Amino acid sequence: MHLYLYGPPGSGKSTLGKILARRLDLPFIDLDAFIECTAKQRVPDIFACEGEAGFRIRETAALDQVAHGAPAVIALGGGALLSEPNRVLAQATGEVLCLQADAVTLEARVNRHPGKRPLLAVPNSGCAVPPHPGQAKPIGLLLAERASHYASFARRLPVSDLPPDVTADRAQAAFGIFRISGMGTAYTVRVGDRMLDAVGEHLSELGCGDRTVVVGDTHTLPLYGERVAASLRARGMAVSTFAIPAGETTKTVETVASLWSAFLSSGIERGHAVIALGGGVVGDLTGFAAATWLRGVRWIGLPTTLLAMVDSGLGGKTGADLPQGKNLIGAFHPPSLVLADTSTLATLPASELRCGLAEAIKHAVIGDPGLLDDLPRFAVCEPCADSAPCACLADAEWLAPFVARAMAVKIRVIQQDPFEKGVRAALNLGHTIGHGIEKATRFAVRHGEAVAIGTVLEAQLAEALGIAPSGLAAQLAARFAQVGLPVKLPAGIDLEAVQAAMTLDKKKAGGKVRFALPAAIGEVRTGVTVDDDTLSAVLRHAP
Length: 543
Ligand code: NAD
Ligand code: ZN
Known about the structure:
globular
């Protein structure tokens, strides 16, 4: 499948296309450049000799050629999809993203390359005579004429005031595609609402041999196992399935051993890959079993909780718990592919969804404040019982782009720091106090809830230290509360136990508790050391 970039002249399709192609390890094709190459003539000259009609014929032929070629990022001309057959072809062979910008931005950009765009009259450009008199028009007029056409594309991205790198992040989220490198072999992450049906196709592309095991838990395997297996069988693969009991108590070395046995009886060899269908528990265990089976086989992540999509399924940390503590065993072993099917979130209990939202809000605070704008969409879930799924998520078109955008923040961070040596510490926001709360309550407060409370308290700490302006903690508390997450310490919690648990963590980190603290929504300061008295005062005076 191609990634087509479309939109008015000057919307930045070529600049964005080059960045996306580099990030996704795909070739880049600029359709106008392709036409010029084939015609051995510049586009304005084609217009001058053959008129717009002649150019459009060449454009259709060029599109036909590239559309049937190898997957690429393709920047289309500003009117390439006005023709219905062209539009049908593009939509059948890829995904189209339409860039949107206002006339002022477009005019400024077009002015940088006067004469390149034959349909436009370019004011103040020194090239006052249009190459093809009678056709050129001001960009505002062209935009008005095509407004409903550009608006008719389902995937649209406003780009007027964004720098190219941010535009590229947003474009990746809109397409739902990322490529993560930095920890061994690079791998692709896809997000969408029909990913489970495409598992077989993706595995054949990766070359994963003739067999696999789908590992799920006692909730996810009955719900989605057959869909995944059918997609794999359709590609001629022999599929076995293996269900582990649902829940954190399963995350043990004994379960890992049971996975090794399942791999053995299913004939999993070096060239094969195993599949994790479930939340963070299934992902962590299957990834770790894959890391250690035959000294390492590949694994594919099919995350089905919001937390696993935006957090645990990305970054390559795998492992299991010991009775003495969580995640004490583990290995860095990134998946070979992650396919996040957001339609699975419609069966997730509301309480689990909220825990994932805590991490998504954390990502907004780390690097994408705009994510918070989508929170009211989740607020309608508030009446849902904790154990019931949020029916309001079924067929929610906005869900996949939201999830992809929340993922983008973590991906950006782990790309910069795959092995947790520096900036990745930002992802610990809310987790230092959060872990203390989890431990002090013997995990009665769920992880996501503890992260919500922890983030608010860490914002109070940041305010006390002068790192954050006063009011930030209240602002964050309102955001977590908006989706039904707690923001206050549970009544009667043993504060000394909270602090003691954090001190225990501190021993691991060389004697000092190092915090990632919010300085603003969109900015986190890492490596902040806090003395015990300040911490104690914030915990004790928490509202
Ligand atoms: P989980 O895997 O236990 O899933 C939560 C519950 O939801 C389970 O009962 C599960 O069966 C059920 N479920 C999953 N998908 C469902 C669906 N689509 N419909 C209905 N029910 C569904 O928990 P989690 O919150 O996904 O993950 C938590 C784990 O992730 C913890 O063990 C944590 O340590 C780990 N984690 C790992 C990393 C990492 O980097 N590897 C990061 C954060 C958390
Ligand atoms: Zn977390």
